């Protein structure tokens, strides 16, 4: 059994990673600082290190340097936010095996870990969302996606699914428009599943998270020695997706110089790896998505008009959640079922007040916001019903109802304190709002000194 050391100062995040990787067959330990990581490695060792870049005492770069000084050749994968991509590139030059952008995509992470420790990847099923949103760099999503984001009871949802069903069997390029959180990748994946390429790879790239200096390599691959840090040959996304579908999310963020190279690859049906002059034939179906108006961008010279013509053969619009209100409760119930299974909770149901609260919320973050609200409520709930008090919903441009919590216990403590204030100290009302018994409330208040 391969051992992994997680170095992550966000305790909840670290525990989620530890639990999930443990279920994937790894022996996992978690520490919250570089000092503790060094002590663990000196006494216990590890087959792989998964380290956050920013840590309270030092950063992941310091850990890399320490490994080199100690002569320890342990593969290290750096976890970093988009703002720290440059530092991640520096880490690669210092010997990091790879890096992943936060919020981490589980499929991508498992693949990188398996490559680093030379162990076949387990099949990721019901992989949790490690963070908010869907920010992937490149991932081969071969599993079955949830239909939660697509199907529903509303006319808008039914019309969208009908379009998907009609478009899928064709070979035409598709451009998907929709606000953040509406489920553009889910729609793209469903098109792939219903197409003749369903048994082939589905490779997704978030164009907004690619560092400019690595963009061409991510798309088309590179040969060893083609630039500093290119220690081995790399298979780009287009070759990885050969025979299947490539999904370019947020294509409006693609650098202008790479737009020309993308257009050439689409037209010639071949790519050239960085550092090579040899064309490599590729057979892919292209699906793109954006939350921006590409026509307006083209008019301003920010997006190539000839590329827009190529990718916009078929155009799909995904409605915002506020435009499909009939789907709010059915979607919420599907998420409840999923998260109850994921967190080992008994079957939970929404009470009437919670249903009303969910229906009245504007859902500026769309289905993704609803999904995260349900996940948080399921984690905290200690009863048979999800009550309105478990949903601390925030409207856009509105101050949060509670300060941010770094751990699940902090979150629970703040929610109890908030509900106590809201109910004027009426413990029966507080217990009812939180969906727990009075005795459980007493125990938790004692625990947190409330």
Architecture blueprint of SSEs:
Blueprint (H helix, E strand, L loop, with lengths): L2 E5 L3 H13 L3 E5 L2 H10 L4 E5 L7 H11 L5 E5 L4 H9 L4 E4 L4 H12 L20 E3 L14 H13 L6 E4 L6 H10 L8 E5 L8 H6 L16 H4 L4 E5 L6 H13 L1 E3 L6 E3 L3 E6 L3 H6 L5 H7 L2 E4 L10 H15 L6 E2 L1 H9 L5 H15 L4 E2 L21 H15 L4 H8 L3 H11 L2
Parallel strand pairs: 1-2, 1-3, 3-4, 4-5, 7-12, 7-13, 8-9, 9-12, 14-15
Antiparallel strand pairs: 6-8, 10-11
Fold and architecture overview:
It is a single chain. This protein is α/β, with parallel strands linked by helices and 450 residues long. The protein contains 18 helices and 15 strands. It has helices at residues 11-23, 34-43, 60-70, 85-93, 106-117, 155-167, 184-193, 215-220, 237-240, 256-268, 294-299, 305-311, 328-342, 352-360, 366-380, 408-422, 427-434, 438-448; strands spanning 3-7, 27-31, 48-52, 76-80, 98-101, 138-140, 174-177, 202-206, 245-249, 270-272, 279-281, 285-290, 314-317, 349-350, 385-386. Strand 4, helix 4 and strand 5 (98-101) form a beta-alpha-beta unit.
């Amino acid at each position: 059994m391969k051992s992994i050391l997680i170095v992550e100062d966000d305790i909840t995040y670290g525990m989620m990673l530890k639990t999930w990787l443990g279920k994937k067959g790894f022996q996992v330990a978690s520490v919250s600082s570089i000092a503790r990581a060094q002590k663990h490695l000196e006494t216990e060792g590890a087959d792989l290190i998964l380290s956050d870049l920013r840590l309270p005492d030092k950063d992941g770069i310091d850990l890399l340097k320490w490994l080199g000084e100690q002569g320890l050749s342990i593969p290290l994968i750096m976890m970093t936010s988009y703002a720290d991509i440059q530092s991640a590139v520096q880490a690669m030059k210092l010997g990091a095996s790879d890096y992943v952008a936060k919020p981490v995509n589980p499929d991508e992470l498992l693949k990188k870990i398996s490559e680093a420790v030379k162990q076949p990847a387990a099949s990721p099923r019901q992989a949790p969302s490690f963070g908010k949103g869907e920010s992937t760099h490149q991932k081969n999503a071969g599993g079955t996606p949830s239909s939660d984001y697509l199907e529903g009871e509303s006319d808008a949802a039914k019309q969208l699914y009908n379009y998907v069903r009609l478009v899928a069997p064709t070979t035409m390029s598709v451009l998907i428009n929709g606000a953040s959180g509406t489920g553009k990748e889910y729609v793209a994946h469903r098109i792939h599943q219903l197409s003749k390429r369903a048994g082939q790879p589905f490779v997704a790239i978030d164009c907004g998270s690619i560092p400019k200096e690595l963009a061409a390599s991510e798309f088309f691959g590179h040969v060893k020695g083609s630039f500093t840090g290119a220690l081995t040959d790399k298979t780009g996304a287009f070759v990885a997706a050969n025979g299947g579908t490539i999904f370019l999310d947020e294509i409006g963020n693609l650098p202008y110089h790479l737009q020309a190279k993308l257009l050439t690859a689409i037209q010639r049906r071949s790519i050239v790896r960085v550092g090579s002059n040899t064309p490599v034939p590729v057979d892919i179906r292209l699906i793109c998505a954006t939350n921006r108006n590409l026509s307006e961008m083209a008019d301003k010279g920010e997006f190539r008009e000839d590329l827009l013509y190529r990718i916009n053969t078929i155009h799909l619009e995904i409605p915002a959640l506020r435009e499909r209100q009939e789907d709010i409760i059915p979607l919420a119930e599907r998420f409840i079922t999923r998260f109850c299974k994921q967190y080992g909770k008994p079957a939970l149901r929404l009470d009437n007040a919670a249903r009303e609260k969910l229906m009245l919320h504007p859902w500026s973050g769309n289905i993704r916001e609803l999904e995260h609200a349900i996940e948080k409520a399921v984690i905290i709930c200690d009863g048979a019903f999800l009550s309105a008090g478990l949903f601390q919903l925030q409207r856009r441009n509105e101050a949060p109802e509670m300060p941010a919590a770094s751990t699940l216990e902090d979150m629970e403590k703040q929610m109890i304190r908030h509900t106590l204030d809201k109910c004027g100290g009426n413990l029966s009302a507080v217990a009812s709002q939180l969906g727990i018994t009075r005795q459980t409330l007493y125990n938790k208040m004692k625990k947190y000194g409330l």
